[in-house]
Amino acid sequence: MKVAVLVTCINDSLFPGTGKAVFRLLRRLGVAADFPEAQTCCGQPMVNTGYLDEAVPVVRAFARAFAGYDCVVTPSGSCAGSARHQHGLVARRAGEPRLAETGPKVHELSEFLVDVLGVTDVGARFPHRVTYHPTCHGLRLLRLGDKPLQLLRNVRGISLVELDGAEECCGFGGTFAIKNADVSAAMLEDKCAAIRATNAEYIAAADNSCLTHIGGGLSRQRATVTPLHYAEILAA
Question: At CA 215, angle to CA 214 and CA 219, rounded to 5?
Fold first, then answer.
């Protein structure tokens, strides 16, 4: 099986530790994954804001970068959701059906581990109190269910605490947080209050974009909870 990793723009630019964690984890499990250096954006920002024509060259670049791979693994429910559900829209817009061929091969990390490799115990150890926020694209678009939690429950030493109202959005939603700032801030306030009530040391999620939003809210409240992508816990 030929595997590539889609690190994603936000991880490449702001959270390189998450991408490195994915490679460490896959190597531990005997998976030799590639990092196609030609990879750029999945095209989600353009599609989400209605710029389908502008998304066409981006999705073309995506299809070229990941051509020939059996599986593309990404530590992002958001970007996996874009590849699987939005690339078809762009392909039809461009009149190029082949642009949608890569999307079905893209797996969010927990999908790849649980569904493809059949693994729920990755041999991790993380002796800390952790709560988990299931991000919207993973929860509603990909329907990951409890796959990330299955993996986290098998981490040695972890104290996994249930998050009240876990399925409620954190208020980020990409440009939603900018265009609807007041609503977004109110949603974030509720999410941060629920996180602080767990007395967790870490708040984990499948998307660093949402964790950036949550982390900003917690920082402004001077909370001591640290945002951390769950891939970095699994790689510990």
Answer: 120
